[in-house]
Amino acid sequence: MFTEHIGLKQISGSLIALDGVKDASYEEVVRLRLLDGTTRTGRVIALSGERVVVQVFEGTAGLSLEDTRTLFTARPMELTLAPEMMGRVFSGAGQPRDGLGEIYSSARRDINGSPINPVSREYPRNFIQTGISTIDAMSTLIRGQKLPIFSGAGMRHNEMAAQIVRQARLSSPNGEDEKFAVVFAAMGVKNDVADYFRRSFEASGVLQRVVMFLNLSNDPILERILTPRMALTAAEYLAFDLGMHILVVMTDMTAYAEACREFSSSNGEIPSRRGFPGYLYSDLASLYERAGMIKGKPGSVTQIPILTMPNDDITHPVPDLTGYITEGQIVLDRALDAVGVYPPVSVLPSLSRLMKDGIGEGMTREDHAAVSNQLFAACAKVQDARSLASVIGEDELSETDRQYLAFGKAFEQRFIHQGENENRSLEQTLTLAWELLAMLPKSELDRIDDELIARYYPAAH
Amino acid sequence: MTGKVIYGINGPVVTVQGTDGFFMQEMVYVGHDRLVGEVIGIEEGVTTIQVYEVTTGLKPGEPVSPAGNPLALTLGPGILGNIFDGIERPLPALEEHFGPFIAKGSAVSSLNSEKTWPVTVTVAVGDALSPGQIYATCPETPAIEHRFMVPPGISGRVTKAAANGDYRLTDRIVTLTTDRGEEIPLTLCQFWPIRQPRPAARRLPIEKPLITGQRVIDTLFPIAKGGAAAIPGGFGTGKTMTQHQLAKWSDADIIVYVGCGERGNEMTQVLDEFGGLVDPRTGKQLRDRTVLIANTSNMPVAAREASIYTGITLAEYYRDMGYDVAMMADSTSRWAEALREMSGRLEEMPGEEGYPAYLPSRLSAFYERTGNFETLCGKKGSITVIGAVSPQGSDFSEPVTQNTKRFTRCFWALDKSLAYARHYPAINWMDSYSEYDGELSYWYNSTVDSSFMRLRGELLHLLREENELMEIVKLIGADVLPEHQKLTLETARVIRLGFLQQNAYHKEDTYVPLPKQFGMMRVILHLHAEAKRVTEAGLPLHRLTETGIFDRLVGMKNTIANDDTAAFDRLEQEIDETVNAVLKKG
Q1: Which chain B positions have a beta carbon within 8 Å of A373's beta carbon?
Q2: Beta-carbon pairs below 8 A across chains A and B
Q3: Is A317 within a domain?
């Protein structure tokens, strides 16, 4: 039963209020018809007796109190789901934007999803080789993980994400390639960026396995809030209904959070840190927690959200709250980027929480964990040596500190730095790590067992 | 109850016109789906309800029915080994009924009412029972005996008592007749409102430490049984990892682990790991003494607020049986944020950083539920709480960290730079403290070794000295320091790498008993004292470091078995010989 109401009571910012509405439900979707015949979409965000407050996604410009017709659909925000979604491009509100027509299917799902019961989760343990040394060796990506990239404006995070998508695909064990798909959500990014990803998917031949949800920087703010939910609903469908391994790339989470802030302040909510709404943590969690694997189901959802840290500040609420929810982070560094190191991964603050259970004997290589720990410890020492050198000069440093400086330089140039199309196997990465560690005296390798040192320490030294 | 219907809906907050028949903190069922909620405000003509589930699809006009009792937990056998959400709904049962996703309105009973328990009745007809007295027991798990207690506020004489045998949760075991002639049936379960502390006879002074097997905690910053500790740290510093280690290895009888607004995968990991782990002291599965409360970050926010109270109420129930209970709350910041979110929805006047003004009083009321107690039945029980704090932007001056610091006496500050260097546990030894050291010094000196606290003082002193020297080293390098200061740096290095760093994934190092902790400390300080003879003789320190003796001590956590205390005597001897050899060579 659809009821249509004519006229509004009040318009304020992106919100409209109606009186005398019976039978409206919380978070129900409404369609507005304007006098000129165009339609808009909104959602019920507060109810008080017969008074209903609706948030209009496309904004209220052009709306009038008298002539707007409001249709209550009695359904929450939903997305139509079908295997044919792959290769298609949708708007942030889930409407096709590639001109290829609607998706028809009986499968429709609430875009807010439902939390996965922790008891039903499968603890992620399968290593995904990305071919990027810093990630594979030191912040390993695991299938079902949420591992964000913390970047800053102007750094090459998009190239890096595209490279991960390109290379991670190939390493699927036992020829599972068929079961692989990418869901791409663009929130408030420029058209060029969205286009870069599209071309990059095309060039690597995965375009037919990509579902894109685009909310560009000039698209409605409120649709931006829906975009990741649409994308994740599609991802969950492909993963848990169709049994595919899904990589979800979401960019830019900062723009998403800013949309939440804009919406919140227009609602007159009490702001918390830096004006962001107090529920930003819960809100981000409702997105990030939709990654994972479920017992007894073959598929998985792996998330790579990208966010730009305003002023490269990692304590800004968006990276900060994200870091508390996600299972690690890959942090990019402006200084490395400036000297042309690609990908400019700052290894010390980067971390993968699920790494410990997905590497080692039987999964990657027996020395993986020890080598990774040693690299981290060595990088910390390099930092100390550098700050000391900046005070007393390199010549005054002890022999060991000088060796660390040399190691640090080689580490950046040979280990971190790699080509945009260079796909290093884990074997290559670890061999390279040993080569670099051999620049240090053996006594400095205090995180590696003597047995492993005997087995892997390069013979030439 | 008729006529009560929803009037307004705003997120998890629902209002009802009219106040008749509601009381504060009463449990209510909201809507056709019967979502669980709680009355949080009664004002002129309007009752405000917070709903513990997603309110999408709810409509004004749907019925609201008061339950007639406050939001209460079912307490009885079947709690241990189980995993619940924030309002005590068992997650395995939810999975069985509703599949892998948690849908709203999923009603299942908290404890299995079909299962039978082998009950031993410990009272006879004619016995007078007062509140808290035990009338029956049953083995709840192989590790823990469940003791059935007369609920607080009830007393009388036993007029009927069942024979020993197998009973279900709601079977009548004992009938009490009160002075007024009222008959009260006692079953295998009772109910208790989560926001109200359970009574105990009296508080007892602190006397014992909670042994965790983690060197930096047990030796340097010990926590008492009945104490409260805070672990603040930015993301990636290892809060959860530390909490997991404590849940696994601390010597409490019962562990209540509350995952409050944290990651789903982490709870899964706890479930996976605890199933297979064996308690080093009892030889029983760790899972048998553990109860998990999981309210992950994407579950409804109101239930997150309740989950901390659910946890502490369960802890109090087992304390009343006479057990030492340790509760891990990960993370109390998420709980505070839930308070803030609800407060915002209620349009209350915000305090600091948008948190409600009652944040400090809520925190203090929560931490006051810890302590060492004599229970109503005359046994000794304790509740220790270890609360993780996730400060925004790793800034310890934010309200939750600061207020928590006021109400806990143990502070384990996690440090980002230590975590970056993969020094775990990343507990910063300069910023952390334990106020329990005074009260516990008698225990350490009399139980472990009479010199324990003195050596601990020396260890801390060396670390402090190193910290000061590092300021100089940062400016001019280590080479120019006099030899005795170089020795301080070298010993401090051994302490940091060999003692403070502890590998949670190493089978010996993950849990280290106190005698070994003491042995390690003793040997390190012995080396320091002996090495002084080298520097005092005017010899350069590197003569001694060249022998590799310092590195041997760094490695002793892995090379010496946990129960091999004699190895430390041998090591001391070796140190003496090495030093003498160096001195002899000159």
Answers
A1: 422
A2: 212
A3: yes
Task: Give B298's contacts in chain A (Cβ within 8 Å).
Answer: 115, 282, 285-286, 289-290
Give the B window 427-466 contacts with A, CB below 8 Å. none
Question: To the nearest whole angstrom, how far is the Cα of B174 from the nearest Cα of chain A?
Answer: 36
Look at residue A178 and tell me whether its pLDDT is greater than 90.
no
Task: Write the pLDDT tens digit of every residue in A49-61.
Answer: 899 999 898 888 8
Q: Of B2, B173, B156, which Cα lies nearest the Cα of B76?
A: B173
Confidence category of residue B293, pLDDT binned at 50, 70, 90: very high
Q: Return the bridge partners of B386, or none.
A: B229, B328
Say if residue A386's pLDDT is above 60.
yes
Q: What is the mean pLDDT of residues A2-21?
A: 87
CA distance to A17, B59, B147, B383, per residue, from A53 (Å): 4, 13, 53, 47
Domain ranges, residue A372: 368-460
Q: Classify residue A187 by burial, with Cβ atoms within 10 Å: 0-12, 13-18, 19+.
A: buried
User: Which run of H or of E encompasses B381?
Assistant: strand B380-389
Whether the link from the prior residue into B331 is cis, omega within 30° of 0, is yes
Q: What percent of chain A has pLDDT above 70?
A: 97
Q: Are residues A243 and A301 in the same domain?
A: yes
Question: What residues of chain B, 101 to 160, have a C-beta less than 8 Å from chain A?
Answer: 101-103
Q: Exposed (0-12), middle (13-18) or buried (19+): which is A455, by Cβ within 10 Å?
A: exposed
Co-location of A313 and A377 in the same domain = no
Nearest alpha-carbon partner for A303 in A423, A126, A185: A185
Helices (H) and strands (E) in chain B, counts: 16, 26
Query: CB-based contact (8 Å) between B276 and chain A?
Result: no
Same domain, A60 and A143: no
Residue A168 lies in a domain: yes
Domain-located, residue A281? yes
Q: Which of A117, A327, A396 sits opposite B94 (nearest CB)?
A: A117
- A72 & A84 share domain: no
CB contact under 8 A, A278 and B334: no
d(CA B212, CA B19): 50
Domains identified in chain A, total number: 3
Q: How far apart are CA B191 and CA A55, in angstroms?
A: 43
Q: Let me know whether A248 and A111 are in one domain.
A: yes
Q: Are B452 and B444 in contact (CB under 8 A)?
A: yes
Question: What's the angle, vertex CA B104, arms to CA B101 and CA B107, rounded to 5?
Answer: 100
Q: What is the pLDDT of residues B100-121, one digit of tens each?
A: 998 877 778 899 999 999 999 9
Place of tokens 């170089």: B486
Do A65 and A88 have their domain in common?
A: no
- Interchain pair A398, B478: CB under 8 A: yes
Q: Select the more confidently predicted residue: B86 or B280.
A: B86
- Identify all chain A residues contacting B466, using CB atoms and an 8 Å cutoff: none
CA B148 – CA B322 distance, rounded (Å): 11
C-beta neighbour count of B507 within 10 angstroms: 9
Nearest CA in chain B to A292: B265
| Residue A84 sits in the same domain as residue A67 | no
- Last-in-domain residue among A323, A357, A391: A357
Q: Are B264 and B229 in contact (CB under 8 A)?
A: no
Distance CA A223, CA B245 (A): 43
CA distance B258 to B243: 10
Q: Is residue A362 part of a domain?
A: no
